[in-house]
């Protein structure tokens, strides 16, 4: 996998390079400031980009802006955004254009190497990888919505779906059968007024689109 990394913290940046190259990926470019990000993405058109939200010179949302513009100019560019904290507005803005090939993780997650690499590979394949803490924020930020009608178990299933997990993983995590998971997913879609199919990434994208547009 060809990857572009944008991170202003030199130690973390080099750590990401070492981590990805050790896992067999090719880091084709690195960026340390916001203005460097978009040119690197346009030049190399990587299989995936790992971008920090806040970068010099302003340390506001330079990485996020670059990601949004890059996805406009390179439709479908897989982007995994890293953030120090849960910034709900940034996550929501990132998802506005569709969740395919998008991830939003807290930087602490990078230290969990297997989880981080799995998330990056999911995003590169067109899937979704949202940090559990981000999912919690998205699920709890709205009141008086159809989400309120979900049972605690259905909310657990929905959260794991939004993180990008398949039925088998959800079943293992919740210690239930895949048949039970399939039934819970059906109930979730019914209550949210969404198409009943739970196949592929379409279910995750539909749920995220619903959450993002309420």
UniProtKB/TrEMBL annotation:
The modified positions for 4-aspartylphosphate read: 52
Highest taxon listed in the record's lineage: Bacteria
Spell out the molecular function terms from Gene Ontology.
DNA binding
HTH luxR-type domain location is 143-213
> Which CDD domains does the entry link to?
LuxR_C_like, REC_NarL-like
Kindly provide the name given to this protein in its UniProt entry: DNA-binding NarL/FixJ family response regulator
Q: Where is the Response regulatory domain?
A: 2-122
The record, for SMART domains, names:
HTH_LUXR, REC
Identify the InterPro entries for this entry: CheY-like_superfamily (IPR011006), NreC/VraR/RcsB-like_REC (IPR058245), Sig_transdc_resp-reg_C-effctor (IPR016032), Sig_transdc_resp-reg_receiver (IPR001789), Tscrpt_reg_LuxR_C (IPR000792), WalR-like (IPR039420)
Q: Which organism is it from?
A: Streptomyces pseudovenezuelae
Q: Which UniProt keywords apply?
A: DNA-binding, Phosphoprotein, Transcription, Transcription regulation
């Amino acid at each position: 996998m060809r990857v572009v990394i944008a991170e202003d913290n030199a130690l973390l940046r080099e750590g990401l390079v070492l981590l990805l190259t050790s896992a067999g990926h090719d880091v084709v470019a690195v960026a340390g400031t916001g203005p460097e990000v978009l040119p690197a993405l346009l030049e190399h058109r990587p299989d995936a980009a790992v971008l920090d939200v806040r970068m010099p010179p302003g340390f506001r949302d330079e990485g996020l802006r670059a990601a949004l513009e890059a996805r406009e100019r390179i439709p479908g560019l897989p982007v995994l955004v890293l953030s120090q904290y849960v910034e709900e507005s940034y996550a929501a803005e990132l998802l506005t254009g569709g969740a395919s090939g998008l991830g939003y993780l807290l930087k602490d997650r990078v230290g969990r190497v297997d989880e981080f690499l799995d998330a990056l590979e999911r995003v590169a394949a067109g899937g979704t990888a949202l940090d559990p803490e981000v999912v919690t924020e998205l699920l709890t930020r709205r009141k008086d919505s159809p989400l309120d009608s979900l049972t605690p178990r259905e909310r657990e299933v929905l959260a794991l779906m939004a993180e990008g997990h398949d039925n088998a993983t959800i079943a293992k995590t919740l210690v239930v059968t895949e048949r039970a998971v399939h039934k819970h997913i059906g109930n979730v879609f019914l209550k949210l007024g969404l198409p009943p199919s739970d196949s592929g990434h379409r279910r995750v994208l539909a749920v995220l689109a619903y959450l993002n547009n309420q």
